[in-house]
Every structure is written in C-alpha cells, then in structure tokens.
UniProtKB/TrEMBL annotation, chain A:
Keywords annotated in UniProt: ATP-binding, Nucleotide-binding, Transport
GO molecular function (one): ATP binding
Gene3D superfamilies: P-loop containing nucleotide triphosphate hydrolases (3.40.50.300)
Limits of the ABC transporter domain: 2-225
Organism: Hymenobacter nitidus
Protein name (Swiss-Prot/TrEMBL): ABC transporter ATP-binding protein
Superkingdom of origin organism: Bacteria
Pfam family, one: ABC_tran
TrEMBL record, chain B:
Keyword RNA-binding: no
Localization per record: Cell membrane
Listed InterPro entries: ABC3_permease_C, MacB_PCD, Macrolide_Exporter_MacB
Biological source species: Hymenobacter nitidus
Residues forming coiled coils: none
Major localization class: membrane
Protein name: ABC transporter permease
C-alpha cells in the first residue's frame, strides 16, 4: 500500500539547514499495523506528515496504492486525504465550536455525503466508539479519553483505508490510553492499515511491526507477530 | 454545508462576544451612516423629475458682462420678451412656459387677512409643462383671463376651509381683485419651485403692474423664469449657439453709433437642464434656496470613510483573532478541505455578519431619518430607502462589504499549514504589518475629520462674530407697503412716541439680502466725467436708514430734509470711492456723480459694511433717496427697538401698524435671524461634520480597543515574566501602549498635511475667512493620541497590575 524510497526532507532557516529525513525507505502493506518509535527530533512526525500528504519531501518517492504522490497539487492531495486517510493526534484537535456529532460529521460534509446518510454513518460510528450518549456535548465538556474516542470516530467515519496516529495516547491516563489502543486494534482487525508514532513501548506492542528511527533514518525493525 | 457554515459562524460570534459586538456594532454604524447619506443623496438627486418631459425641459438663464468681459451678474431668470421671441424664432422649441415669482403679498377673503408667500404669475403653458394636476376648474382656460387665480390645494383650504373656492374673489395687496378659477395639487416637495397661488399671466398687462408695453418690449426686468421643452433627441447646445445672434437681432441698439457694442458682448443667454437646477444652479434670484452638489460629494465621501473604518475593524480583529481559529483551519485541511473551501467559509462568515449588520442598519436608518431630516433641513422620507432598486442594493451590499472586509482575513487564515498549527507552532506575526497599516488608515481618516470639524466650526463662529460695519441687534424688518408713503412721517412719529422704538428707516433692500440692482455710473475724476470702470450696485434709502443700522460715515454727511438738493445727492461706500479713483472719502465729497441718468453730487461716504453675506466680497455701492427721478421705491422698513423691553416695543409697533394700515397684516422678522439663515448651510454642515467625525473616531477607537485587548491576552505570559524580573506597572503600561500610540502618531503626521490642503480649499469658498488656524492641527493630533491612550491604558493597567504568578500558572 505504501512504498517510500530514498526520501529526503530538509528544513532550512536563514542560518541553519536541518536534515530531518535522510535516504529513508519504508514499506507498509495493506492491513498492517506499524508503530514508529524513536527519540524526539528523529523525524517521526515529519514522516507521518508526509504520509498524510500534509508535507512534501525534498526528493525521493512516495507511492500510495501504486500511484506516485510526490508532486501532487493541493486539490489532489486534499482528495486523497479526505477519501483514504484518517488522522488521530496526541492533542485530539477537535473543533471547539462544534459538538461531538458535528465534529464527526465534518469529513462527510467535505466528501459531499448526503445528510440522511451522514446521520446513519455518524451514529453508527459514535455507537461503535461508545460515545453516542455524548453526541450533543462540546469537546470541552468531555474527558480526555472521550475526546480521543471522538477524534478516532472522526478519523474513521469516512472509512479510510489508512489511519495515521501521532502519539494517540500521549495526553491520556493509562486506562483511557488502553481503551483507545483497543479501538485502534479493533479497526486494524477489520482491515484498516495503521501507522502510529509513539514513545510508548506499551502502545507499540499493539502493532505488528515496530520501526525504530534515528536521525532521519530507520535503524531497526521488530516484527511482533 | 451552508447550514454547517452558518452554525459555525454563529457559534463563533457568540463565543467571542466582545469582538463580535465591536464588529457588528461598527459595521452597523458604518452602514447606517451610509444608508442615511444614501437617503440624502437620493433625495437631493430626485429633484424636478415629476414633469412628464422633465429630461427635455431647460431653463433659460442670463449673464451680464462689464466692458472688460468680466461677468457681473448671473441671473436665473430673464426679461419677459425673451421667452415669446425664442418660441417664435426657433421652431424646434416645442413648448415654452414662463413663471414670475410675486414673492409675498397680503391676501384677503372676507374678513380673513393673511400674508401669502410664494405667489406667482403663470399661464396654462406652465400647468402643462410642469404636469400640474388640476383638481378643479378647467386647466386650459383657468389662467386665460386677467385677474383670475388658481390656488394650490392647501392654500385654498387656508382661505376657504372646506367650501368650494371656485368663482370666489380674493383681494391681493389691497387693490387687485382676482377670481378663483381652479385648484391644483402642489408640486412635489422635491421641486425647485412651489407656487402657492398662480395668477393669470395676462394680469401683468395691467398698468399698475408691468403694463402691456413693458411685457412686450422690456429687456431689463429680468425676473421671468422661462422654461423650454426641446425635442427628445435635440442637442441643447445647438440652440444655445444661436443665442448671441438672437440677442443682436432683437435687442434695442443705442442711439449714438459711437457707443455701439453688440448686445451679445454685454449679455448672454444659457440653457440649464431642469433636472440640474436644484444641485448645480447658484444664480441670483433663484426661486428657492437650492442644494449643492459639493455638499452631496462631501457627505458621500464621509459615509464611505465611516464604512471603511468599520471594515478595517473587521479585517483587523479577524486577522488578529486568527490564532484562535488556526486549529479549526488545520483540522479542516487535514480532513480534506481545500484552501478554496476554507476561503469560502470565512468569506461566507463575513458576508453573514455584514448581512446581520445591514438588517440592523436598515432599522437604525429608518429610526434616525426624521432626526437627520431636521438636522439637514430637508424632508427625507423612509420611502427613499424602501424603493425597489435600493432594496435590491441592500441584498447585494452585504456581499460587497462582506467580501471587501473578509477577503484579507480569509486569505490569511486559509494559508495556515496544518502540520505546523496542529503541533502548536503558530507564528502570528503574519499580517501584523498589514494590521498596523490599517490602523494608521483609520486614524488618518479620523484625525482628518476632526480637523475638518474644528475648522468648519471656527469659520462658522467667525461668520457669526465678524464685525459687519452695522449693528444687527434689535432690528426688526418688515415689508413696506407703498400705500403708507403719504402718511409715513406721521407713522414714524407715532412709532417714536414710545421710548422703546429707537428709530425706523426705509430702503429698497436690506442687509443680509443680495445687491442685484445696478445702473450706469459716471464720475468726475480730474476734470472730465468718465464712466466708472466697473459697475456699482445701488440701494435706495431714506434719511433714517444709516442711523437705524448704525452705519458710520467716513466723510461728508447723511441725507437730510434740510437739504432739498439731496434728491440728486449720492452716498457712496468706501469701496466705490476707491473704485472710482478718488484719493480719499473726504476728497469724494462734493464731487459730481451721475448714476442711472441722474446727475448730482456726492454728499457723503460711508465706511464699508457687509451688506451681503460674507460669502460675497464687499462691492462698490451707491445709495440715494427714492424719488421720482431715481425710479427706485422703498420695499422694506427696518425698526430699531430698545433691547430692554422687546414685548412692549412689539406691542406698540403692532398697534401703530394696525392704526395706519388696517388692511395690512403685521408681520416682522428679526434681522439677526435673517443673518443666521445666511449661514444655515454651514451651520448644518458643521453639525453633520461633527456628528460623522465623532462616529468615525468612536468606531476607530472600538477597533483599537479590540485590537489592544487581543494583543494583551497574547502577551499575558510575557507580562508575567517581565514582572517577575522586576518590571513596574508603569513600564508595562508604557510597553503595551507605545506600540499602538506610535501608529496613531504616524497617522497624525499623515493626516495633518492632507487635511490642511482640503480645508484650505474649503475656506476659499468664503470671501471673508479665518486664517488657517495652525494650532488646530497639533491639537487634533494630540486629541486623537489622547483618546487612543485612554482606550488602550484602560485595559493595560489591570493586566499590568495583575499578580504575575497567576498568569504564569495558567500558561
């Protein structure tokens, strides 16, 4: 599903040039659950942004579903993102002015799903995430665990084939964290490919394969199952 | 999608109440100002559209030139011969109508005696051309016979109540008996003339009025407002081009060939579009006070300025607040929104807010309209704003203003990169320069309006306080009926029997009026009698006129019954003496002088005084007694009363009047009221100027308030750290305030030369004006800085005083 070869990413400011990703190679198969680990600044998040088409590499290739995405314009990136990719963030990133229901509904609005179908699908996913009873609340009124469940619901409501998770449990206590990890595992079992960046060895064990990075390169791979 | 956007907009509005209120309030104020001024403009530009062929009707006007070709007089009316001659010479003229304003007279029906304004002479052509609706009587014949009269509906009710006025008789000015032959509906309020009574034009052939001979041949009684209707596709300039030849063909030539000058070198005729009369015509003898196109421009510009300031508030506050919505933008982009969709969302938001403001503004404008009408001295009806095109415009307005004020914030916010925002790095320095520039623009406009207000107010005060060369206090003026002349001495003595009446004088015109009468003048300079270089205006006065007004003599003496030769005596003003070329007022006294064919001597010279308004320079003036030879009559009486007991003086005046003039209603005007009316336009302008300047500054300060409030919340942590490190409250206030104050300072530097230039030009409209008051400029700048300072400091102080531990903990 994902094939990255010789990826380079450099950030430049006026005085310094920082190499973030250097000759990086990575392959993720359909249905896989991959955890990316490594110390701060090793390039994990940049990798995730490139996978999510939020950022561009300086060189190298990123093939998604047999299509080279490097050089896509804004419109094609947005298309691919809204149909195929869901995001889960450490800080949830829910829109404060929208209710739980409306936050989850948002991706469906952008893909142009009809109102009736939106209702069915949002309720279905809220139900699945066990947050249905909170659908009229605003994010500020929820606990961290609940917020992250809403964020996961929003990530999956469009039935993406790939979920990118950036330290999804980083802001949660362990019981809420476990709950979110269980949800991700469950999604993965149902066929969704997941790439997760994490600092937590505990969370990483939910995955099939742990990729460790250092200084912009993958250094080791551990296959768990 | 739309519903989603509306929901988000409304929730954001409610969440940030202060900023939403500032935005909504500012936009509402700005739009209200625009709507009010729109109503004013629509009213001013709607004049004289009611005649069915309005666009093809022209008014004939006349100019006069001195031998050097300089224009000496511009009249809105022409001589009685001109209309009929034009009609017979030029077949392309489809219709021609003449109306002669009769001013105010005394009208009597049975025992009802009333002073009647807006009397006019006209015939059926006038009714036809102006599309006057005749309510009773026959439009074709009602004004055919001499001594017939048609009444405007309200006038008819005034005299006859509900009774049918047809065939009843009204007695005008004590001797002219007219039969009522019809009633008509008055011309709309937005017309440049509103005759209340129309006497048949043929009545003027009566020898006691103009006489048949004069009506047929006079080229000099230029009081006849003459209107032509031209064919739809005809170019009026073509007709105008033939007027000089027309004048040379018809005007009487001087008897001596040596004096021959083609009449077209001394006078000319012009065509003026009927629909242009109200806004562009400022000629002498206009039927009513006209509007002024420059005033319309000035107020349009001010309205746009106020709206601009409100739009800038929106731009500034939205971009400043962008950080608060950055996460939303990031999330939307991550989920798959394109930039264009985000731009559309934010534009939609500003359009929605503007639509809300527009709805509020329509309400406010309708409420404020009667009040503005009073302030502007016109009648602005709500219908002006409720017409189809205006309503359609109101639907488009939010779109235009919304996009205008929302575009920059939308472009700015949609440019956020999600990968940065969602990690929490947001540099909000973007747009800062732009925001600063906008604040400068707001204050340039505000300070400019402040300077404008101050200078307009100072000029108006100057007009009211400038020494006029006569004393305008406690002077009563009234129409002088010629019938009083035989008993005038007895009347005056009866008046002055009581100490409350100090003096009374008669004249053909009075100060605060215009000087429009002139005749040929010649004076002895050296040893020959030579015509004067430029024209000299005249006023006929009696021997009590100068003392009544307190006009001072510079040399010689006043007229006096002790000198029988005074019937050919002249009193000049100092300007006339200078123009003639005599060395001094004293040197002029005793010199031979010929005026209007009468040969005589200069008996006195008065110091210059402001006969006309201060818009006009003092012109050379000659005064003489009304005699058979001078052919000028007294039209007005001025009575000087003691200030101590005005009611007693008035009562005495009235009883004396009734005793001598039982047929004549007693009506008077205080001269200083007439004087104040001269500057009413400027008065109003200054009030409106002050109002709009106030609104502009208020909205600009609201914006500054919002902006500084926002800047402070962003810097709470910085303030905390500074305080922990030992900064005092005052240094923090200075730190937070100086940023914004610098901007206001820059605005002041830009605004001052700009407003200096504009106000310098405005002052050129006055022949007598204040020196440019230099101190107004630093004062206006300082005032703006102070207002801004109060706005900002009111917020910074509480933040600067707060315990830093709290702000650091909340971070």
């Amino acid at each position: 599903m994902i094939k990255i070869t010789n990826l380079e990413k450099t950030y430049r400011t006026e005085e310094v040039e920082t190499v973030v990703l250097h000759a990086l190679n990575l392959e993720v198969r359909e249905g896989e659950f991959v955890a990316v680990m490594g110390p701060s600044g090793c390039g994990k998040s940049t990798l995730l942004n490139i996978l999510g088409l939020l950022d561009d590499p300086n060189s190298g290739s990123f093939v998604f579903d047999n299509t080279e995405t490097v050089g896509f314009n804004e419109r094609r990136r947005a298309e691919l993102r809204k149909h195929a990719i869901g995001f889960v963030f450490q800080s949830f990133n829910l829109i404060d002015e929208l209710t739980v229901y409306e936050n989850v509904e948002l991706p469906l609005i952008y893909t142009g799903v009809s109102a009736a179908e939106r209702k069915t699908r949002v309720e279905e996913v809220l139900d699945k995430m066990r947050i249905m009873h909170r659908r009229h609340h605003y994010p500020q009124q929820l606990s961290g665990g609940q917020q992250q469940r809403v964020a996961v619901a929003r990530a999956v409501v469009n039935r993406p084939r790939l979920i990118l998770a950036d330290e999804p449990t980083g802001n949660l206590d362990s019981s809420n964290g476990n709950e979110v990890m269980d949800l991700l595992s469950e999604l993965n079992e149902q066929g969704t490919t997941i790439v997760m960046v994490t600092h937590s060895e505990h969370d990483a064990r939910y995955s099939h394969r742990i990729v460790r990075m250092l200084d912009g390169q993958t250094v080791t791979e551990t296959i768990l199952t | 999608m739309l519903r989603h956007y509306i929901t988000v907009t409304l929730r954001n509005l409610l969440k940030h109440k202060l900023i939403s209120a500032i935005n909504l309030f500012g936009l509402t104020m700005g739009l209200t100002c625009c709507l009010l001024i729109l109503a004013y403009i629509l009213h001013e530009t709607s004049y004289d559209r009611s005649p069915p062929t309005a666009s093809r009707i022209y008014r004939v006007t006349r100019d006069f030139y001195d031998p050097n070709g300089a224009t000496t007089l511009q009249l809105s009316a022409v001589a009685p011969v001109i209309g009929p001659l034009l009609k017979s010479d030029f077949p392309q003229i489809e219709k021609m109508a003449i109306i002669l304003s009769g001013g105010s007279i005394v009208a009597r029906y049975e025992d009802k005696i009333l002073t009647q304004d807006s009397l006019a002479f006209a015939d059926g052509n006038f009714l036809d051309l102006f599309g006057v609706r005749v309510l009773s009587g026959d439009a074709r014949t009602a004004l055919q016979e001499p001594r017939t009269i048609m009444l405007e509906q309200r006038t008819a009710r005034k005299y006859f109540g509900t009774a049918d006025p047809l065939n009843k008789e009204l007695k005008l000015d004590g001797n002219l008996l007219c039969k009522v032959t019809g009633v008509y509906q008055g011309l709309p309020e937005n017309s440049h003339l509103h005759p209340a009574m129309l006497i048949s034009y043929t009545t003027l052939n009566d020898p006691s009025l103009y006489g048949e001979e004069a009506m047929r041949t006079s080229w000099s009684s230029n009081s006849f407002h003459t209107y032509l209707q031209l064919p739809a596709t005809y170019d009026a300039a073509q007709l105008e081009a033939q007027f000089p030849a027309f004048l040379d063909r018809h005007m009487p030539q001087p008897k001596r060939a040596a004096d021959f000058v083609p009449p077209s070198k001394m006078t000319s005729l012009q065509l003026q579009r009927l629909t242009d009369v109200h806004l562009t015509s400022h000629r002498a003898d206009e039927l009513e006070a006209n509007g002024d196109i420059t005033r319309v421009y000035i107020f349009s510009i001010i309205a746009l300025f106020v709206l601009l300031i409100a739009c800038i508030n929106y731009m500034n506050l939205s971009t400043a607040r962008a950080a608060l919505r950055a996460k939303e933008v990031g999330v939307r982009k991550v989920i798959g929104a394109r930039r264009s969709e985000i731009i559309l969302q934010f534009l939609g938001e500003s359009v929605l807010i503007t639509a809300l403001a527009t709805a509020l503004a329509v309400g406010c404008a309708l409420l404020a309209l009667p009040w503005l009408s009073r302030l502007a001295g016109t009648t602005l009806s709500p219908e002006l704003l409720l017409r189809g095109p205006v309503l359609a415009g109101l639907l488009v307005l939010p779109l235009v203003v919304g996009v205008l004020s929302g575009l920059y914030p939308a472009l700015y916010m949609s440019s956020f990169q999600p990968q940065h925002i969602l990690k929490g790095f947001l540099k909000n320095s973007g747009g800062l320069t732009f925001r600063r520039a906008l604040v400068v623009v707001q204050f340039v406009v505000s300070i400019g309006l402040l300077v404008g207000t101050a200078i307009v107010l100072l000029q108006v005060r100057y007009l009211q306080q400038t020494p006029l060369g006569y004393n305008r206090e406690q002077l009563l003026t009234m129409t002088y009926p010629p019938t009083l002349t035989p008993q005038y001495e007895a009347f005056r003595q009866a008046l002055q029997q009581q100490a409350s009446v100090l003096n009374a004088g008669r004249s053909s015109r009075i100060p605060t009026g215009r000087l429009l009468d002139a005749s040929d003048a010649a004076a002895v300079v050296g040893d020959s009698l030579r015509p004067t270089a430029a024209s000299i205006k005249f006023v006929s006065i009696d021997d009590q006129f100068l003392p009544t007004y307190g006009i001072r003599l510079a040399a010689g003496r006043n007229f006096s019954p002790a000198f029988p030769t005074d019937t050919t005596g002249f009193i000049l003003n100092a300007s006339a003496v200078r123009m003639v070329g005599w060395d001094s007022p004293a040197a002029a006294v005793g010199q031979a002088f010929r005026y209007g064919g009468v040969m005589g001597r200069v008996v006195g010279v008065v110091e210059d005084f402001h006969f006309e308004s201060l818009h006009q320079p003092i012109v050379p003036l000659v005064m003489f007694l009304s005699t058979v030879t001078s052919r000028s009559s007294y039209n007005l009486l001025t009575v000087k009363i003691a200030g101590a007991n005005v009611p007693a003086a008035l009562a005495h005046l009235e009883s004396t009047w009734k005793q001598f003039l039982p047929e004549q209603p007693f009506a008077y005007t205080f001269l200083d009221e007439s004087y104040n009316r001269l500057y009413e336009a400027e008065q109003r302008q200054s009030t409106l100027f002050a109002l709009f300047a106030g609104i502009a500054i208020f909205i600009a300060c609201l914006g500054l308030f919002g902006l500084s409030a926002f800047a402070i919340t962003q810097r709470v942590k910085e303030i905390g750290i500074r305080k922990v490190l030992g900064a005092s409250t005052s240094t923090i206030v200075v730190l937070l305030s100086s940023d914004f104050l610098r901007l206001v300072g820059v605005a002041a530097l830009l605004a001052l030369p700009l407003s200096w230039y504009l106000m310098h030009r405005w002052l050129q409209n006055f022949a007598y004006r204040i020196e440019m008051p230099w101190w107004v400029f630093p004062l206006a700048g300082l005032a703006a800085v102070l207002i801004a300072l109060v706005t900002i400091v009111s917020q910074t102080v509480s933040v600067a005083r707060a315990n830093p531990v709290r702000s650091l903990r909340t971070e």
